[in-house]
Amino acid sequence: MKQSKNHFFFFDNLFPQNFFIIFKIMASVIQNHDSQISIRSDIRWFPQLIYTLTSELMEEIHNMEQFLVKLHNIYAFLSQISFFIMCQEHFNQSHNDFDKNVIVALSTVLFYSVFGYFSTRVRDIYQGNRARTGTHRNPSFINYLKWFCKIVLEWAKAVVIVLCLREQGIHYDPKLSYSIVTFLYYLCTERIFVEVFPQLVEAYNFQSLDSLEHLYVPLVMNTIAITAGLLLALYSFYMNNSILVLLAMYFAVYLRIKDAYFNYYEILVAEREIFSSFIVATRKDIEKWDDICAVCLNNMSKARITPCNHLFHPYCLKQCLRNSFYCPLCKQHFLETRRANK
């Protein structure tokens, strides 16, 4: 018994877990087949086996891709470097010099990363000072002066870093067209700007976006990046017909399409579906409940009634839906309740 146990321990470490998943699927399919019919006389189970294995394999690949997308920095770097290499081929007509294209693309990522890092620092300085001074009163002139000095200091550091890189022999003199296209793509794909741009749009309070700027804006940014990547990939594939273009399309186009659909579009549709299902509370309903909004703890002149009979401000309810689809009070899942009532 001890020897047999060690034997299975060896195989458990030798093969990846995915192989055992496949073996379990095969065993379950064969086990469910009618035992009275021999495999030689009837092989109708084989298409079902192939379909099941293919479905499980595609699901595993999808999960790995979603895991890669959630590693924002790595995913952004892979899509940016792929796009920048194709841009270098197009704008500088260097289709046959792959090493040079990679070096220019890496240099572009390096210099843009300096900009992204100090943009993050400026955002953190602004949010940190705003949190300390409070959001319900206007900061004084001294606070504004401190913000300005800290921001200028951070950008001075960025200039020093760029000068040091040039002194070390890292020269970056791209064409203007290349710089414009790659910088716009960087803005649309870098995490800091995907987080900041919706906040800027929200500050203008566009009523047509229904307080869903955190989904609309990244979706538009992803659409721009996908369109640019697809056009460049098709052009690059037409010019040099290289298999590497397909790899670039995978990171710059295919994964970005999946990111836009599963992480923004589906959530956007679900949030709109849930919020539209909430009943608009009348003045009589608000007076009948005689309650305050459990999110902001203020009285309500406008409210929405959830399926679990709780009242919230419409804006507060939308802010809660950003984080989860559960009721802030009773934790009932809005989406499951809506689908169960259909």
TrEMBL record:
Task: Give the GO molecular function terms.
Answer: transferase activity; zinc ion binding
Q: Which intervals hold domain RING-type?
A: 293-331
Q: Which Pfam families match?
A: zf-RING_2
Asked if Zinc-finger is a keyword of the record, the answer is yes
Could you list this entry's UniProt keywords, alphabetically sorted: Membrane, Metal-binding, Transferase, Transmembrane, Transmembrane helix, Ubl conjugation pathway, Zinc, Zinc-finger
Q: Where are the transmembrane segments?
A: 74-91, 103-120, 241-257
Q: Which PANTHER family match?
A: E3 UBIQUITIN-PROTEIN LIGASE RNF8 (PTHR15067)
Q: What is the protein name for this chain?
A: RING-type domain-containing protein
Q: Which organism is it from?
A: Hypothenemus hampei
